[in-house]
Specification:
Length: about 280
Amino acid sequence: MLKAPALLDTHTHFDVPDFDPDREALAHAARQAGVEGLVLIGFVQERFADLIRTHHFLNGLDNAPRSYLAPGLHPFYIEQHQDSHLQDLEQLLQSEPCAAIGEIGLDTFLKEHKQPETFARQRRFFAAQLELARQHQKPALLHIRKAHAEALQMLKAQRFALGGIAHAFSGGVEEAKAFVKLGFKIGVTGQITNPNAKKLHAAVQALGAAHLVLETDCPDMTPFCCQRGAEQRTRNTPANLPYVLQGLAHSLQIDERQLARQLWQNSLDALHLTA
């Protein structure tokens, strides 16, 4: 029996309470499925302690994916962030070996986040975290929703040159190419398993495998094939990453193992890691 190809889950929330009952078992299942590494993503300051605790727990296990830390302050939760949280983030970057800063960016999905004062606050926190990334020489893991043009403008204005990943990409082909031009990889979630996600399929096909990475964004973004029904949410886990690989290979018409090798290298490049 062929060994599963090595995969890196570039975006997880494996620290959240959804996983408290069975985190260890799920970590072993992910490793058995070929997931050799995963990135633990931050989103609010009050969860930083759990993020770090989960990171050390996972790295203390045998036969589990290696954990990489990426703390940050998520734009969707802008009302919860305080200026002191930026100082807490900087302290975390100084005290723990972090692979990246994330997830950071801009989000105007909600009507209230389009209000000038709120959006200005999102921009301020995004700019401050890009500056922290620059100071600490870390890539950025971006959350951009309905604000691609504004995010691109800010990245160019700050001359951010450390790259990273545009996570759970939801923009069009030209926007994807613009992020790639700035040194970012495009994060592909379980949405790629949905044949109706035509915008995403068009973007990945236009870019090709060289500019893509895989992610589960667990516990969300469950692959189409793993969903139990529309009535209830099906928890996503890192062990589902091979389904994302399958969906992307099908979309690109590329052999899965060949694609996995390319995506592994892309992930290392995006996160400034060595094999």
